[in-house]
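dumping the sequnces here before i forget
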Amino acid sequence: MTTTTAPAVELRDLRKTFRGTGKGTRGRQGSREARTVTAVDGLDLTIEPGEVVAFLGPNGAGKTTTLDMILGLTSPTSGTARTYGEEPRRAVAAGRVSAVLQSGGLLPDLTVRETVRLVAALFPRHEDVDDVLARAGLTGLGGRRVSKCSGGEQQRLRFALALLPSPDLLVLDEPTSGMDVTARRDFWATMHADADAGRTVVFATHYLEEAEDFARRIVLVAGGRVVADGTTAELRAQATGRLVSAQIGAGELARVTDVLQRVAGVDDVDHTGTPAGGIRVLVRCTDSDTVARTLMTDLGACELEISRGSLDQTFLEITEQAEQAAATTETAR
Ligand SMILES: Nc1ncnc2c1ncn2[C@@H]1O[C@H](COP(=O)(O)OP(=O)(O)OP(=O)(O)O)[C@@H](O)[C@H]1O
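..and the predicted 3d for all of it:
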């Protein structure tokens, strides 16, 4: 690994549009024009050397397209992407940046060890082949043909290849997809050791626990933009959603639900049974004071608890707010 003062990743007003049919919903339909899909829509982001950053967001949010531009695999329609102050392709060619992508890139007839040796020969300087195999948990699988490897093993092989040039920045697009729980845990243990040694890691994931456990910073992407950026605690604080729960009398559920659904700021009313045979009502809302007062004063509830929503709900809330704001802007245009 080399040292530098430039940010590991610097994205400025990054945009990428595609013509054709996309899986997302952000395209604008012209009367006779082909549909244009805006995958990345003015994204700004700076990642400093040594940071471990998770990209989270719903399907079609623009995560893969952004990572592809960080890797120089696709060019921005406008805006700039730099890695260590230079064009991404140069940083990749120099071995400073490497990636574990979701699919492709492996030759089925080679063995695992042959694959690693072949790719190692492409770099003037590279890590020891056996060491890389060991770090990717592939020591016992060196002689196995790639076509006979499971999806999770092939993903570990891609990881081994990405480690070969000893990159300063490792970009991982859903790196553990297809891995079982043990393989996933081993993978992240290796990554922890690398990150502790100063390597910058940027990864996209759908697993919230992975983002929370491993990343020190979470970048939430929706509609091709960054809609939240911070530690898990900071993101939780940004969400206004609260979960209010309280015990209610047997036979009161219909009336309580009816009253609560009329309270301003209530998103959802649910209930669960208690071990003692009672009922606990669960209210997702933005104004927990009013809901608590209604429950205790008007509805005779007891054992009230107020908490922030789960991390899942926090992300959902932030994403929904961003999507509503984008839809309002789009309508106003
Ligand atoms: N080559 C392409 N041609 C047309 N549209 C594309 C192309 N690549 C991506 N898109 C569209 O751009 C948008 C963003 O896609 P992208 O794959 O970057 O999202 P993502 O956040 O990685 O999604 P996922 O979580 O499902 O992997 C989607 O609407 C997708 O359909």
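Residues 22-32 have pLDDT under 50 and may be disordered.
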